[in-house]
Amino acid sequence: MTLTVQNPKEIKNGNDSTTVFSFTFVLNQSSDLVVTHTNAAGVETTVTVGTGTTNYSISLPTTPGNGSITYPATLGTVLATGATLTLQRIVDLDQDTDLVNQGAWNPSQVEDALDYSRMINLQQQGELDRSIKIPVSDSAGTSLELPTNTLRANKAVVFSSTGNVGVSVDNYVDQATASAASAATASAAATAAQSAASAVAVPFLMDTGSTTMADPAGTNFRLNHGTMSSVNKIAFGDTSKDGVDVTDYLMTWDDSTSTINGHLILVQEGTPANWAVFTVGAMTDNTDWVQCAVTYVDSGGSLFTNDITVRCQFIRNGDKGDTGLTGAGAGLEMTFESTATDTDQGAGKIWLNHGTASSATVLYMDDVDANAVNINSLVDSWDDSTNLDLRGTIIVKKQLAPENYHIFNVTGVVTSASTYSKIAVTHVVSAGTISDTHAVDVQFVRSGDKGATGARGSDAGLDMTFESTTTDTDQGVGKVWFNHGTLSSASVLYMDDVDRNSASINSWVDSWDDSTTTALRGTIKVVQQASPAIFAIYNVTGAVTSATTYSKIPVSYITGAGSFTDADVSSVSFFRTGNTGSAGSSTPADNVFRIQDNGDATKQIAFEASSIGSGTTRTITMPNADVTLVASALANVVEDTSPQLGANLDLQAFNLTSSSTIMNPSISSTGKALVLGF
User: Virtual CA dihedral for 212, 215, 219, 223, nearest 10 degrees?
Assistant: First the structure.
């Protein structure tokens, strides 16, 4: 191929969003590319190819001019505004082509060698372009050769009257030290002068006759409260004790643009132990006197007394500094849009799917920010975390009033909608108000990826080792085994007296039969720790027997899954059955004992004992036959030695049989007869 006079170096500027940077020069292999990161402070760092958050990945050009790198290779800190990436082609200064005399002629080999030589030429030209050069019009005798390293050590480079390079006579380190000392001295002098100017103490006479904020007259001053810590206003006369009009000076005390204008120090002349300190607020000129708003800081000694001289010293605070530039990492600059529809609201817009932020479930971001910089790739990566429940947090702050903000968690996927992105969110908290057209900063804090599943804790049960042997002999420390190789057929479970950690478990295991519910004393679950899906569950159906160094537990298989293998680390859990409850009463009260219809609970039979004599038990004996009680047939049946029938008696229906005794009763009653019909 032909190589034009191309620059084998390109500089890429950061903008807080771009991650793919193309280059136009030719590369034979990825190792020929050298990438240098320069931050906003000018510090250079070589970036290496790789897969990390501080590496870059490369796409080699398939044709001249279509190569590119991705930085960072994995989502991390993108190239910030003010930072640069310098991409250079640096090839080895080698000549590897060997053209053998009378050998085969390979034009491609020759061209590759020429191309490689041209790359070296361009590379060296780049080095020359960065070198210090003298103009072509300089005389031929101009020398830029430096003295030896011994002669130039600790010296500064200087040029002679003829322009030749040389070094200073004096040690430049000493000069720098002297210069720094001189600067420090000057700074200290300036500070002292400023302090002296600020330390002017104006003398006033104390007026304790009143706490009213009014003209204290002449050279006096007064406080608005008799307790120093409660003072928040001071009245000064226009004239100091020295007879100087100090009005203009007093009115400068609130000139500072800081929140606190300065500090006022009151000291009793001759008795410096009596003092008070206040911060100064607004000053008010009342023609003949000045009112000073103050906030109490501290005091010492006694209260000032009337007519004593108090020196009032004001120390001014410096003005509030200018607002600093917005940092490059403050977030994406966007414009808030109050519309809540799922349609693109325009360049640089951010909006929600609900007019109330706390009810929003989707946050929309245009594909470019307020500066028309493409942010689509960055925003679409906000769901990349494998922590699917909380992929990250989005903070939307009003630029001019950051105390107004919305915070959302990214709880779902980011969907690209051609010119904007839709982000599934859950509202966390908001403060203040963000309205339509407000400039906002949008920050995203990514959640870390979901960690690997941790090991199963041994506290899920007793930490044991499964043993496949089925004999009724101790199998060793920490072993659990059964009396049958098929776990569903096992009827005895054996437990060693210590667990895998040699902790004694004998007393605990021997208590597994303590329940008074003898048929089912508890439940045992054996689980393989490495795979909890492998388990077996048994009921404890008898007494636990201690066999000196292990215990034998009668069990009945319930269910299980999978297969245990010899030496499997397992957890054994026991769930005790509650004791048998006390027997209920066999003689329920008559207002309790009810029989109800199984189809309609409102139909009930109530048994009443109220008519039975005290201390008497009545027995109801049912015949060995089905009986239907008819209300009319029993209405007039009365207990008596001579039965009385006040209604029709169907003897046939009630299976009464005839006998001579029954059929021939001895009845003597005048004018009365008993008629039995069959």
Answer: 20
